[in-house]
Design goal:
This protein is an all-beta fold. The chain has no helices and 11 strands. Helices cover 0% and strands 63% of the residues. The strands form 2 sheets. Strands 2, 4, 5, 6, 9, 10 and 11 form a 7-stranded mixed sheet that branches. The protein has a 4-stranded antiparallel sheet with strand order 1-3-8-7, with no helix packed on it. The N and C termini lie far apart (40 Å). 29% of the residues are buried.
């Protein structure tokens, strides 16, 4: 089992910044991909940004140039630096990890989610 614990959400004014963190713990071989998703009220959950173990990144178009995802493999931690925040960034942000673990003697990928952290941007 793997646990993902997020921190860093909160209330900020438009134009401000927040930094989200997510720490993975548990039993696994390695973390292949870590990412951040968000879900606003009445909307589907969407990918915000992701980063592979080789530091290849992917961003949703609306956050490009404003958000930066990074990871510290030694700490099993992924970060999301959010700058120039807008009211439309308001959502619950979820950490996601695709983890490689040994299951019945074979390496398999498992998908895990954090509990979510609220980000609210006021206008």
């Amino acid at each position: 089992q793997v646990q993902l614990v997020e921190s860093g959400g909160g209330l900020v004014q438009a134009g401000g910044s927040l930094r989200l963190s997510c720490v993975a713990s548990g039993s696994f071989f390695r973390i292949n991909v870590m990412g951040w998703y968000r879900q606003a009220p009445g909307k589907q959950r969407e990918l915000v940004a992701s980063i592979t173990s080789g530091d290849n990144t992917n961003y949703e178009d609306s956050v490009k140039g404003r958000f930066t995802i990074s990871r510290d493999n030694a700490k099993n931690t992924v970060y999301l630096q959010m700058n120039s925040l807008k009211p439309e960034d308001t959502a619950v942000y979820y950490c996601n990890a695709i983890v490689e673990a040994i299951n019945f003697g074979m390496r398999r990928n498992f998908n895990y989610w954090g509990q979510g952290t609220q980000v609210t941007v006021s206008s």
